[in-house]
Specification:
The chain has 2 helices and 9 strands. A 7-stranded antiparallel sheet has the order 3-4-5-9-8-7-6, with helices on both faces. The radius of gyration is 18 Å and the shape is globular.
Length: 163
């Protein structure tokens, strides 16, 4: 069982192919993509989106890690910058996760546009030979703030030059 959101008002979902369970807030919207065998959940305020998938041909964390990065690059994010990879155990499951950021390749269910700066966390959970992959996305607001600070500094220099 994987629980990554500590919310009391959450709906339990079961990924039938693998038996993995996860929770999403009751008020989130959801979608099942038959084409990608991917379950998506998102809030309508544009703050967060999670995608879950369980490829049947992937049987271990090492193979899953490269597959997951390729999926992120193919479907969601370009110009990917990865942080450190972390391995461990959560609730008795082997897991691997990495944080990163990049540029959104599509408009998200949650509402941010193609080309937006996106931060993400990608996680892989394994029990026996079953693997569940999860990617959580959110607008990279920290990146936007730093861009605004640079613009403000440039404007201040321009104002001083005119004096």
């Amino acid at each position: 069982m994987v629980r990554f959101l500590g919310l009391s008002e959450a709906k339990e979902w079961v990924y039938k192919q693998t038996g993995f369970k996860f929770w999403l807030p009751d008020n989130w919207k959801t979608n099942w993509s038959q084409e990608r065998s991917c379950f998506s959940g998102w809030d309508e305020k544009g703050k967060m989106e999670f995608d879950f998938f369980a490829p049947t041909k992937i049987r271990n964390l090492n193979t899953a890690a490269q597959y997951l990065i390729d999926e992120i690059d193919d479907w969601w994010i370009s110009d990917i910058q990865l942080g450190n990879v972390h391995k461990g155990n959560i609730n008795g499951l082997s897991c691997l996760y990495v944080e990163g950021k990049g540029i959104s390749k599509r408009q998200s269910y949650a509402g941010w546009e193609e080309g937006a700066q996106i931060a993400f966390i990608a996680a892989i959970y394994q029990k026996d030979t079953q693997v569940l992959m999860m990617v959580g996305y959110a607008p990279d607001e920290k990146e936007e703030v730093s861009k605004n600070e640079i613009v403000e500094d440039d404007n201040e220099e321009d104002d001083n030059e005119e004096d």
